[in-house]
Structures are given as C-alpha cells and as structure tokens.
Amino acid sequence: MSNTKFPAVxxxxxxxxxxxxxxxxxxxxxMLFAGAVMPSVAALLLxxxxxxxxxxxxxxxxxxxSNTAPAGQASSSPARPLLVSTLxxxxxxxPFLKQQYTGIIAARxxxxxxxKTLGRVEQLTVELGDRVETGQLLVRLDSQQLLxxxxxxxxxxxxxxxxxxxxxxxPRIQELDQSQARLKELQSLMEMQQAQLSRTxxxxxxxxxxxxxxxxxxxxxDAVRAQLRAAEHADALLQxxxxxxxxxxxxxxxxxxxxxxxxxxxxxxxxxxxxxxxGHIQARxxxxxxxxxxxxxxxxxxxxxxxxVHVGLPSELADSLNHGGGAQTLLTxxxxxxxxxxxxxxxxxxxxxxxxxxxxxTVEPGEYYPPAIGSAVNVxxxxxxxxxxxxxxxxxxxxxxxxxxxxxVAVANSHTGSDDPNSATHTxxxxxxxxxxxxxxxxxxxxxxxxxxxxxVEGVHRxxxxxxxxxxxxx
Length: 475
Prior knowledge:
By secondary structure, this protein is of the alpha+beta class. The protein is built from 7 helices and 23 strands. The strands form 4 sheets. It has a 7-stranded antiparallel β-sheet, covered by helices on one side. A 5-stranded mixed barrel has the order 1-22-19-20-23.
C-alpha cells in the first residue's frame, strides 16, 4: 500500500521543485504527445467535413429566403443569378494606349543678379517669395563717392562749354571799337612822326640840329611804324573772328568731359540692381551692410509668368513630336489638375545616361494658380492601338498552369430571351490564352477566342466555369 502511494507523493513533491533540465524534459514529452495526437484530430475533422458541408447547403440564406415570409418559413422562389459585366471581345480593348513619363516644372528663365563693382549694400527692397515687375528696384549699393566725382566733372564741363560758346561768338563790339580806336591813334602818331622826320632831314645839312637828334627822329618813326603794323594785325584778327581749329579743340574738350559724366552715370546705374523681367524672388544671398565683390550673387529671380515642363522622352517619340505627329495627344497633369501645354522645343542630343532627349513643353497661362517650380508632372502620350491579338483589361485575366493565362467568357443559354430576372441567360466558360504584352491596365492576348464572344471584364474572382449568370454592360 505504501509502495503504491510513494511514487505519487514523490512525483508531486518533485514536480514543485523541477529544475530547468527537468522542465525541458517534460516539455519535450508534451511536444511528442501533441505530434502523436494532432494527426488523429485532423483525420477526425476531415471525416466530419461532408456532414458540415451538407448542413451548410441545407441552411437557408438571405438570397433563398423571402423578405415577406414569416420567421422560420423558407421561400419557394429560386435564388437570383449573379450579374456579371461583359463586353464583346472586339470591343473590350482601349481606343488608344497610354505611355506615361515624369517631367519637372521649371521657369523659362532663372537669373542670379550680381553687382558689377565692389560696394556696400545700402538697401534691399524685396524678400524671399516677393512678386516683382520688370524694372523694379531690388538692390541699391553705396554711391556717394561716384556722386562727388560727378559734381567735379560737371563743373569742369560747364567751364569748357562757356569757353566754347565764347569762341564761337567771336570778339564783342566793344573790343572791335577799341581796336579801331587804337589803330587810328597809331596812324595819327605815325603821320606826326613822319612830318617831324622830314623837317629833321631838311635841317640835317646845317648846324641847327645834331646828328644825335637826327637818329632819334628816325628811331621814333620806325617804332611808331611797328606799333601801327601790330595794331593792324590785331584788328584784322578781331575782324576775322576765332580760328576753326581752336573751336574744334575746345569742342573736343567739352565732349571728353561729357563722356566722363556719362561713364559715371553708368556706374551709378550699376549701383542699382533692377528686375530684368517679371517674376518672383526665389533666393536672397546677402543683407544690408554687406560688402560685396564684383560678380557676387545677391538675389535669384525666376520668371514664374512663363512656366515650362522639362521631360525626357525616347528618341523615336521625340522625332514624331518634332515632325508634328501626335503632338496633340500629349497630356500633362500635376496631381489631379490638368495643364494646358504645347511642345516648344526639343533637344537634338540624346543624353548618355538616360538615352532620352529632353523635350520642353510651354505651359499655357490659365486662370488657376500656377504650380510650384520643381513639381513633378505626369506627361501622358496616347498612341494608336496596334494589336496581333486582342487587347483586354488586365483585371479580366486569371492565372493558369504552366505560365498560361485564362479569361472567362459568357456563353448564351438556349433560353436567353427570358425576361425573368431570376433565370440565368448565360453560362461561364474559361478560355486559355497567351499573354503577349501588358501596357498599364491593358493586356494583349491570343488564343482560342472569338471576337464576338462576351468577355467578363469585372469581378472574375466571383465566378467559376459552369456557373449560370446574367450579363450586363459595365458601367
């Protein structure tokens, strides 16, 4: 008696103090037990499946039970057949195929505005994202030194212009009168000196005058004669006016000073940077007070009024667009919004990395807010359908064995003309086909199919071969 109880007590005692090794040993035993029992349970369930199936088929459903029948009472009307969407196989394909490419929205012109000369930024009139118009002032550099130089040159120019005007007008009337009076005075003096010299010469033979007095009279006559000759030349110059060469020289001086002022004005204009065209400011590189060098970028402006789409297309497609073929079938969309665009120019070079040619589309201005520069654009090209077989929706294909595919067709029953909505008009049949190629949501297939057969184009996952259905056109 004690021998039979001892193992049970010992097992209960040791089960409470199992080590990790004993626990793992028991776990292995449980797994072996489950592996031995589970096949038996699976066989039992498989054996009971026909019973379960018969019960499910005998149970009433919503399609076989009348809505107006009392609870628990089965309806005597049969279930309605499944409605499937069909089209004649010849009409199931698309009118054209679509080829889609991705492009980028870009501005027609993007310019980095820079200073031509060294200077300090005195004023910035725009911020990032501001709208600007053609000729609008954007940046002003310090120009005080140039303004001072211009004032100096302008003063010299005024003096040169005054002298030129004086030379062109010639001597004044008062100067001419003064020259004439001087000339008459010297002429009178000359007559008086000649008379005195005649008397002196008459007395030269007597002892009334000395030889010295005779020489002084002659010298005075010669001096007066020289003064008279000089006065006559001076009067002739005044009467003739200023020489043309002197006027030309002064005109050259005036032109040189005017050119200096023009050069300074150009430098002053370069101190003010204006917008070359209308657009938006998309970058600002400096702030007020910064010292900038010649050629250093200050702002970046983009011409947002004229946007373009840059897209890489195959060379054959680019050639067809270049010759006008199919250009009207290019559709451009940004998200869900369609853009009105036209082919503007095509690059003559094939890019070495993508083996495509860049095509530029001009976006026509519209009443909508333009898309952001850099946005991705979907460019769609429509080409006519050229088929060896039949083009059908890819959703109408079903996978088959050995790499083949299949389609479902609806074959008309003998009582197709019945108007009873509860009667089936067609029976589903499966046709094996070979897939030639796929293009987005369309596929080209060949096989033992006829152009007039009704192809099931929607809901192929709900039907099986031999199923009775009613057909309808797709919505």
